[in-house]
Write a structure and sequence with these properties.
This protein is an alpha+beta fold. The protein is built from 25 helices and 21 strands. The chain is elongated and about 105 Å long.
Length: 762
C-alpha cells in the first residue's frame, strides 16, 4: 500500500511539473529552437536539446521508452462518458515495465543503457534492455554511445558496482540502488540520488544546463544535502514527496548485490603446476586471456602452403605469421614476396593483405579473392590469364575489363602451385599463369561443372585424386574424386609435394581413401599428442609439470588443425564408414611389426557395419555440422559442457581414434575445446566456413535435409548423461552411411522428394 501511494505521489508530482518544467534540466523556459515536448503516452516533458530531438515532429511525439515498447502504435480509446462535445480523453497506458538502473524513481525521461547479458541464449524473464534517466546519466558524467543518435548510454554495470562496493547509500531514501552524488559542503559525507534530492524539495540542486544550454554558475552539477540546505518548510515546493514516501519507493527494490570481489592475480602461466593450470583455465576469462596471448604465436603452426611444421628454433627463423589474417607461411614457399610494392615494408603481412593496405582507398578497389576456389582469405598470390584469341575481344573493351583476362585476379598459393595446368613463375615476378584453366569466354573455368567431392559445388577449379584407378562411386562417369584444393586441405586430405631424384618438385593430391597413412584422422591425433608426450612422458605422468607459453602455443595450433578436420566430418564420415582409413602404426626404435600382435600394434578391427554403428553412436556427422556452423555458441555457457560431452563421445570411439587412455582423452577434450573457443579463422567455422552446395551429395537421400547443418537434429552433447556414460541415447537422425547412390539414382530420389512436397502443399 505504501509503495502504491509512493507511485501515485511520483505520478502526481510528474503531472504537476509537466505543465512547466523539463524532466531533465528542471527549467520551464523555451526558445524557438528548443521547445518542450510532451510524450503522448507517458506525458513526460523534455526540452529538445536535453533529450536529443533534432526537430519537432509533425505528428504526435513519443519518448524513447514508449517507442521501444510500441506505445506509439497504441490508439486512444474514447471514454464511455464522452459527451460528444469535448475531445475524447487520451488513453493512459499502464506504467512502463522499466526502472532506472541508477535510482529508485520509476517515471521520467529514460534512455537505454548498453549491457551484455551473461547468457548468450535468451531465456524467459531475461531483460531485453536496461534503462537510466537522462538526468541520472548526466549527473554521473556518462556518455552516449552515438553522439548523433543519443539513444544509448554507455554501460553502467561497473559504475553501480563501484558505489555498492563502497557501501554508499542515499541519505534521503536510504536505498543502495544505483549511483549517488556527494553533498558539496566540505566535510559532509552524505550522498544522494539526484532524483531524490529534487523530489523531496529539501535540497539545493545546481543542474549544469537550462533551456539555453550549459550555464555559468559557481558550482554546476552539485547538490547540497537536506541538513546543509536549510530549506524552510514554507519554501518546500508544492507536490514534493515526503521522506517516508521516498523511503517506501526505495524499499520496493531488492538490495543491490555486492559486486564479486576482484579475482586475485594468478601465478605466471609458465610457473603453474598441473592442478593450478587446470583451475586457471577453468575460468573463461583467464582462458580467453591465455588464448589471445598464444594464438598469435608461431611455434607449432603449420605453413599454409606446404603444410609442414618446423621445430621451435626453425619456426622462429623460417615461419612468418600475417598480422592481419593470421595465416602462417614459409617465405621460401612464396619464393619472392616483394612483387607487390615497396610502399608497405611490413614483412608481417602476406601479399594479399599488403595489396589491401596499399589499394583500399582506390575507387575501383576489389578485395583480393581466389578465383580458383570459394575460401575467403588465405595466402594469396597475384595471377593472370591471357586469352587464346585476341581477335574475339578486339571490339569488346568493357567486357574484357570485367573478364578474368582483363582484371587483376588472385589465387591461393596452393591452388596455383598444385594445379597441374597453372604455371607458377616464382622469383621472376611472383605471379601465377592461369591461362590454361580459364574458358575462352573469360568468365568460367575448365571442368567447372563437375562437382567437388567435398563441398559439392559445381564451380571454380578442381583437381583430381592422383591415385591410379581412383573412381568416385557417386559419379563414376566423371572418373576419380575431384575437389577444390582448399576444401581438400581443410578436410585433411593429402595435399603434398615431394622432390624427385631429378630435383623436380611433384605436387600430389589424394582423396580420403587413397591419402597417405599420416593423413588419417587417428594419425593427426597422434601428431597432436606427441609434443605433450615429449614434455610429460609417454604415459603423461609428468603432466603436472609447468608448461611454457611456446608449448601451449604448439598445442593450440595442433588442436585447430584436428578440429578443422572434424568440421568436415559431416561428409567424410560416410567414406570412413564405407572403407575405414589408411592408418598404420608408427613403430618405435627396435620394434619389429612381425614380432607384435595386432593389438600391440594398436589396430582396432572393424567392419562396415560396426563402423556404421559407431558413427551413429558418437554422432560423428552431426558433430561435424555443429562445428561448421558454431552451433555451440548458442548455448548459455558458450557450449563448454555440451562440446566437451560431444568430444568425449568421439574420443571413446575406438574404431576411429584407437584405444585411448583416460588421461589422453582428458588431454584431447581439453585442448580441442580450447581450440574451438579460440575462434581462430583457420578453423573454417562460422563466418569463415567454405560455402557448400544445397544439392547433390550435400543433402540426405532419405529426406532431402542438409548434411552440413543440424536442422532438426539435436545438438551433439546436449543430452545429460549418467556418470561414465559417453554416448547419447534415443536419437534417430538421417544419414547416408552405406547408401551407395549414383548420380542418376540421386536425381530420381530428389525428384520423388520434391513431388511429395508439392503434393503435400496442394
Amino acid at each position: 500500500e505504501r509503495r502504491r501511494e509512493a507511485d501515485l505521489a511520483w505520478q502526481a508530482q510528474l503531472e504537476q511539473d509537466m505543465d512547466a518544467v523539463c524532466d531533465i534540466c528542471g527549467d520551464g523556459e523555451v526558445t524557438v529552437d528548443n521547445q518542450i515536448l510532451f510524450c503522448e503516452a507517458c506525458n513526460v516533458a523534455v526540452h529538445q536539446k536535453c533529450y536529443g530531438i533534432d526537430s519537432v515532429p509533425a505528428g504526435d511525439y513519443f519518448c524513447l521508452a514508449c517507442r521501444f515498447f510500441n506505445r506509439d502504435k497504441m490508439k486512444a480509446m474514447p471514454s464511455r462518458h464522452f459527451d460528444g462535445e469535448s475531445a475524447p480523453p487520451k488513453l493512459m497506458p499502464s506504467p512502463l515495465p522499466i526502472c532506472c538502473e541508477l535510482c529508485p524513481r520509476k517515471q521520467g525521461a529514460f534512455v537505454r543503457t548498453f549491457f551484455e547479458p551473461k547468457r548468450t541464449k535468451k531465456r524467459k524473464g531475461d531483460p531485453v534492455a536496461k534503462w537510466v534517466h537522462v538526468v541520472c546519466a548526466k549527473w554521473q558524467g556518462l556518455r552516449y554511445i552515438d553522439q548523433e543518435k543519443k539513444d544509448l548510454i554507455e554501460d553502467v554495470t561497473e559504475l553501480k558496482g563501484l558505489f555498492r562496493a563502497n557501501d554508499l547509500k542515499c541519505c534521503i531514501c536510504q536505498g543502495f540502488r544505483g549511483a549517488v552524488n556527494r553533498c558539496r559542503v566540505e566535510g559532509c559525507k552524505s550522498y544522494m540520488h539526484v532524483t531524490c534530492a529534487r523530489a523531496c524539495g529539501l535540497c539545493i540542486v545546481c543542474h549544469g544546463e537550462n533551456h539555453t544550454g550549459l550555464i555559468e554558475t559557481e558550482a554546476p552539477w552539485t547538490l547540497v544535502c537536506p541538513e546543509h540546505s536549510n530549506v524552510l518548510p514554507e519554501n518546500v515546493p508544492e507536490g514534493s514527496l515526503t521522506i517516508d514516501q521516498l523511503v517506501a519507493a526505495a524499499k520496493a527494490f531488492p538490495p543491490e548485490p555486492l559486486p564479486e570481489p576482484p579475482k586475485p592475480d594468478p601465478k605466471p602461466f609458465n610457473k603453474m603446476n598441473g592442478k593450478e593450470r587446470k583451475e586457471f583455465l577453468s575460468d573463461p576469462e583467464f582462458e580467453e586471456e591465455l588464448i589471445q596471448k598464444i594464438k598469435s604465436g608461431i611455434v607449432g603452426s603449420s605453413c599454409a602452403i606446404c603444410d609442414t611444421r618446423d621445430d621451435e628454433e626453425e619456426a622462429k627463423n623460417s615461419l612468418t605469421k600475417c598480422a592481419k589474417c593470421f595465416e602462417t607461411f614459409h617465405r621460401k614457399c612464396l619464393d619472392d614476396c616483394k612483387n607487390i610494392s615497396d610502399k608497405i615494408e611490413d614483412e608481417s603481412l602476406c601479399d594479399g593483405c599488403k595489396y589491401v593496405a596499399e589499394n583500399e582507398d582506390n575507387e575501383d578497389f576489389e578485395v583480393p579473392q581466389c578465383h580458383m576456389c570459394n575460401q575467403e582469405g588465405g595466402i594469396l598470390k597475384k595471377a593472370f590469364a591471357k586469352p587464346t584469341s585476341k581477335k574475339f575481344w578486339r571490339t569488346k573493351h568493357q567486357a574484357f575489363k570485367k573478364s578474368l583476362f582483363g582484371k587483376q585476379i588472385w589465387c591461393h598459393a596452393i591452388c596455383g602451385m598444385w594445379h597441374p595446368q597453372c604455371k607458377y613463375l616464382g622469383a621472376e615476378n611472383g605471379a601465377v599463369d592461369c591461362s590454361a584453366i580459364i574458358m575462352a569466354n573469360g568468365q568460367s573455368h575448365i571442368d567447372s561443372k563437375k562437382a567437388c567431392a567435398l563441398c559439392g559445388r559445381c564451380d571454380k577449379v578442381k583437381v583430381q585424386c592422383h591415385h591410379p584407378g581412383c573412381v568416385n562411386p557417386r559419379y563414376p562417369k566423371n572418373g576419380p574424386f575431384r575437389f577444390h584444393l582448399t576444401c581438400a586441405r581443410q578436410a585433411g586430405f593429402e595435399v603434398s609435394d615431394a622432390e624427385t631424384q631429378k630435383k623436380e618438385i611433384v605436387f600430389q593430391t589424394k582423396c580420403f581413401h587413397h591419402a597417405r597413412c599420416e593423413c588419417a584422422f587417428r594419425a593427426k591425433l597422434e601428431d597432436f599428442i606427441e609434443p605433450e608426450k615429449i614434455r610429460a612422458g609417454n604415459d603423461l605422468k609428468n603432466s603436472n609439470l609447468p608448461m611454457t607459453f611456446s608449448h601451449a602455443t604448439k598445442l593450440l595450433h595442433h588442436g585447430v588443425t584436428v578440429l578443422r578436420i572434424l568440421g568436415w566430418a559431416w561428409i567424410w564420415a560416410e567414406w570412413w564408414v564405407e572403407k575405414g582409413d589408411r592408418w598404420e602404426p608408427l613403430l618405435d626404435i627396435g620394434q619389429k611389426e612381425e614380432d607384435m600382435t595386432r593389438e600391440e600394434l594398436g589396430y582396432v578391427d572393424s567392419t562396415q557395419r560396426s563402423r556404421c554403428a559407431d558413427a551413429r553412436k558418437c554422432r560423428l556427422a552431426a558433430f561435424g555440422a555443429a562445428l561448421r556452423n558454431r552451433d555451440y555458441d548458442e548455448e548459455e555457457d558458450g557450449g563448454r559442457v555440451a562440446l566437451d560431452r560431444a568430444l568425449r563421445a568421439i574420443l571413446h570411439t575406438q574404431s576411429l581414434v584407437g584405444r585411448l587412455r583416460r588421461v589422453e582423452i582428458d588431454f584431447f577434450a581439453d585442448w580441442l575445446g580450447r581450440a574451438y573457443r579460440s575462434r581462430s579463422p583457420l578453423l573454417g567455422f562460422g563466418d569463415n566456413k567454405i560455402p557448400v552446395a544445397d544439392s547433390g551429395h550435400c543433402l540426405h537421400t532419405e529426406d532431402g535435409s542438409a548434411k552440413y547443418k543440424l536442422g532438426s537434429r539435436p545438438l551433439p552433447g546436449k543430452q545429460e548423461l549418467p556418470k561414465n556414460t559417453f554416448f547419447e541415447n534415443g536419437i534417430e537422425e538421417p544419414d547416408d552411411f552405406l547408401k551407395f547412390v549414383t548420380l542418376d539414382e540421386e536425381k530420381n530420389t530428389q525428384r520423388k522428394i520434391k513431388n511429395k512436397l508439392i503434393i503435400k502443399e496442394k
